Amino acid sequence: MMKTSSKMLFFIMTMTSTMMVLSSNDMLNMWIGLEINLMSFIPLMYENKNNFLTQSSMMYFLIQSMASMMLIIMILMNMFMYINMWMEMMNIIMLTMMMKMGMPPFHMWFPEMMSKMSWKTCIMLMTWQKVAPMYILSLIMNNNKLTMLIMMTSTITGAIMGLNHTSTQKIMAYSSINHMGWMMACASMNSKMWIMYMMMYSLMTIMLGMYMYKYNIMYTNQYNNMSMNMTEKMSVLVMMLSMGGLPPFMGFMPKWITIEYMIMSNEFMLLTIMSMSSLITLMYYLRMISSMMLIMSHSQKWMFMNKKEASTNMLYINMLMPMLIIMLNFM
């Protein structure tokens, strides 16, 4: 086990390195921030030592360092070459950021790593570790055919590949890939709006991930054996539907905004494909919780007033957030 002081140090370094990327206006400084982030996140994986963690940390290091090498080569070429190839370099930098985030076609390491790690590091990998690459991606993104193809591939891969697995960690990984496609669409239409998407997605992922951690759920069939009260079941149901992007839950709000921007940009074909893939993700979330809600619902008590349960608060947050945003828009 790692000492708490060491873990705290690496955690602060991971947070600070991402903030360094967000506050830099030079690509070289951003590269340094990404390298610090990589080297400080790897020790955080070692919560309990086993062979899987060694394998996944090596996998993470190789993929991230390969992407970093490509990034620094592009930066140096831009600094020291006299030929103007900035557009071609931008496309390669975009591909390196996709490698870092685990987006298709460079996504195979991401679900494999997720299935070998603890839930706490999984949550961090799905949320905070995506902020810095996504920020760089939003700066260099162009509305060209390559970007459209990447969005389409991400949403389709995240939806269809998630159907093949029973591991909840792999399903969450493919759901994250699907959300990355939506986030890219949001960033390409409005360069700042992806931040709101990322915040909402992170909030939903953290809440759902903490539930998985609390009950140690690794596979979908474990939902049948859970000793939950009805309130907790309802909270999990709401969070799952929210992650799938079903109205009127919180997860639909950022997708709704992205849909509006895409309609204004006349991207109807891309929007149709992304919306259909979003329905498939909703299907595998429903498949995960249908047995828990339908078969195991013996209790007639709802116990919404138990203030000690954090799950009740999570339910309220999920339910009230869309209403608050709609009210703010009308004010």
Automatic annotation (TrEMBL):
<keyword id="KW-0732">Signal</keyword>
<protein>
    <recommendedName>
        <fullName>NADH-ubiquinone oxidoreductase chain 2</fullName>
        <ecNumber>7.1.1.2</ecNumber>
    </recommendedName>
</protein>
<keyword id="KW-0679">Respiratory chain</keyword>
<feature type="domain" description="NADH:quinone oxidoreductase/Mrp antiporter transmembrane">
    <location>
        <begin position="24"/>
        <end position="281"/>
    </location>
</feature>
<comment type="function">
    <text>Core subunit of the mitochondrial membrane respiratory chain NADH dehydrogenase (Complex I) that is believed to belong to the minimal assembly required for catalysis. Complex I functions in the transfer of electrons from NADH to the respiratory chain. The immediate electron acceptor for the enzyme is believed to be ubiquinone.</text>
</comment>
<keyword id="KW-0813">Transport</keyword>
<dbReference type="Pfam" id="PF00361">
    <property type="entry name" value="Proton_antipo_M"/>
</dbReference>
<keyword id="KW-0812">Transmembrane</keyword>
<comment type="function">
    <text>Core subunit of the mitochondrial membrane respiratory chain NADH dehydrogenase (Complex I) which catalyzes electron transfer from NADH through the respiratory chain, using ubiquinone as an electron acceptor. Essential for the catalytic activity and assembly of complex I.</text>
</comment>
<keyword id="KW-1278">Translocase</keyword>
<keyword id="KW-0249">Electron transport</keyword>
<dbReference type="InterPro" id="IPR001750">
    <property type="entry name" value="ND/Mrp_TM"/>
</dbReference>
<keyword id="KW-0520">NAD</keyword>
<keyword id="KW-0472">Membrane</keyword>
<feature type="signal peptide">
    <location>
        <begin position="1"/>
        <end position="23"/>
    </location>
</feature>
<dbReference type="GO" id="GO:0008137">
    <property type="term" value="F:NADH dehydrogenase (ubiquinone) activity"/>
</dbReference>
<dbReference type="InterPro" id="IPR003917">
    <property type="entry name" value="NADH_UbQ_OxRdtase_chain2"/>
</dbReference>
<keyword id="KW-0496">Mitochondrion</keyword>
<feature type="transmembrane region" description="Helical">
    <location>
        <begin position="310"/>
        <end position="330"/>
    </location>
</feature>
<dbReference type="GO" id="GO:0006120">
    <property type="term" value="P:mitochondrial electron transport, NADH to ubiquinone"/>
</dbReference>
<comment type="similarity">
    <text>Belongs to the complex I subunit 2 family.</text>
</comment>
<keyword id="KW-0999">Mitochondrion inner membrane</keyword>
<keyword id="KW-0830">Ubiquinone</keyword>
<feature type="transmembrane region" description="Helical">
    <location>
        <begin position="267"/>
        <end position="289"/>
    </location>
</feature>
<dbReference type="InterPro" id="IPR050175">
    <property type="entry name" value="Complex_I_Subunit_2"/>
</dbReference>
<dbReference type="GO" id="GO:0005743">
    <property type="term" value="C:mitochondrial inner membrane"/>
</dbReference>
<keyword id="KW-1133">Transmembrane helix</keyword>
